[in-house]
Amino acid sequence: MDKPEIEFVGDEAPAELVITDIVVGDGAEAMPGATVDVHYLGVEFDTLEEFDSSWGRGQSVNFPLNRLIAGWQEGIPGMKVGGRRQLVCPPHLAYGPAGGGHRLSGKTLVFVIDLLGVS
């Protein structure tokens, strides 16, 4: 799949994780604690400004889910290889409240994730 475009995700940032399947995959299912191979795009909810993209680096990335932000730990399990899912992560499931020391602390983040593999 090509790099996704995120144009509009809503007027008000959600208080809880919002999971939307854009494409439902038909491969192996990601389980809690799995290592996932993904392509992803991350933007800030308020501005839709891109802050990270594996497409920008030209290669997918492998992550153990248990080392990622809570929104990914909760939002990727159940996804199947070949799928594309959008996660809207409020601050408490991303990088914490404002002033938390990360440049994205206090921000609601939107990710579009393509699941390429699980192990």
Task: Give descriptors for this structure.
119 residues, mainly beta, Chitinase A, domain 3, six-stranded antiparallel sheet, 2 helices, 6 strands, 34% strand, PPIase_FKBP_dom, rotamase
Fraction of residues in helix: under 10%
CATH architecture: Roll
Give the total of domains: 1
Query: Which percent range describes the beta-strand content?
Result: 25-35%
Q: Sketch the major β-sheet.
A: 6 strands, antiparallel
For the termini, the CA-CA separation is: 21 Å
Note the run of SSEs as H and E.
Answer: EEEHEHEE
User: What integer value in Å does the Rg equal?
Assistant: 13 Å
Task: Please give the number of β-strands.
Answer: 6
CATH topology tier name: Chitinase A, domain 3
Q: Please tell me the overall pLDDT.
A: 94
Low-confidence stretches: none
Overall, the morphology is globular
CATH class: Alpha Beta
Q: What count of helical segments does DSSP give? A: 2
Describe this structure in words.
With 119 residues, the chain is mostly beta strands. The chain is 8% helix and 34% strand. Strands 1, 2, 3, 4, 5 and 6 form a six-stranded antiparallel beta sheet that branches.
